[in-house]
Amino acid sequence: QPLVSSSKWLQLHGLKRNKLSLSQILSQIGFQHRKDYVTTLGKLVASRYADGLFPQYKRAEDGSVYNLTAKKELILHFVDCLMGAIKLYKQRMEWLTSESRQIFGVIQERCIVIVLDFGAVAPTEFDLCRDALSMVLVEQVTQIAKFNLIRAAQDLMKWQQKSAPVSEHTVESAVTWLWKLDHMTAASHTSSAEALLEAMSDEAVSS
Questions:
Q1: Does a structural domain hold residue 1?
Q2: Does residue 114 form part of some domain?
Q3: Residue that is last in its domain, among 79, 97, 115
Q4: Predicted pLDDT of residue 119
Q5: Sequence-separated (6 or more) residues with CB below 8 Å from residue 60
Q6: Long-range contacts of 118-126 (CB under 8 A, 24+ apart)
Q7: Per-residue pLDDT of the chain (207 residues; tens, 9 = 90+)
Q8: CA distances (Å), 121 to each of 117, 148, 185, in order?
Q9: Where are the alpha helices (DSSP H) in the chain?
Q10: What secondary structure letter does DSSP report for 160?
Q11: Residues 6+ apart with CB under 8 A from 159
């Protein structure tokens, strides 16, 4: 799936976009039972002619009542559409909460720098971090334009001097560099801030 935000995804696949919100469906399968103020009479007049003629649906949100006039076939059509929408939403949720996205979210920027600050993690945790980073490189970074890796340390470590164009070769190179890093390296209390400043100094990085 493309790396798009949920708001953009909903613009394409949301209920309103596909005319499947409750108010949109009600307007297509019936009409609102109104109680309007008639100026000439000076009082509220209800459209009671529909009472008992049609099944009625009352919306809990605003109390409005709709007279349902649609044939069974049209209602079944909307049932099928809504079931399809539910399936699509479930697929999106499963995708959002799987693999690298459950840790890093969905990367939407075209150029990124990932700052690595491992601190004093145990060797097993160090490898878990590198597994996660390898995963995001292969799954998401392959879909953007440029990237770089910087490790926070007393002597700053950079995969490349500046962000590099994404290609199969550069992603493989970054993964190899990642797995060649030493578990422990000298650090200072300013290492993390210096690494972030270095990342932000790359003119190609927007955020």
A1: no
A2: yes
A3: 97
A4: 84
A5: none
A6: 118/151, 118/152, 119/187, 120/184, 123/183, 126/183
A7: 788 899 999 999 999 999 999 989 998 998 887 666 666 767 766 665 556 778 888 887 787 888 888 999 999 999 999 999 999 999 999 999 999 999 999 999 999 999 999 888 899 999 999 999 999 999 999 999 999 999 998 889 999 999 999 999 999 999 999 999 998 877 778 889 999 999 988 877 755
A8: 10, 22, 11
A9: 6-13, 22-29, 72-96, 101-104, 123-139, 168-179, 191-200
A10: S
A11: 148, 149, 150, 173, 174, 177, 178
Could you tell me the residue range of the domain that residue 149 belongs to? 102-205
3-class DSSP state for residue 62? coil
CA 159 to each of CA 2, 71, 86, 164: distance values in angstroms, whole numbers, following the listed order? 26, 65, 43, 9
pLDDT at 54: 83
30 and 62 assigned to the same domain = yes
As for how many domains the chain has, the answer is 2
- Same domain for 120 and 61, yes or no, is no
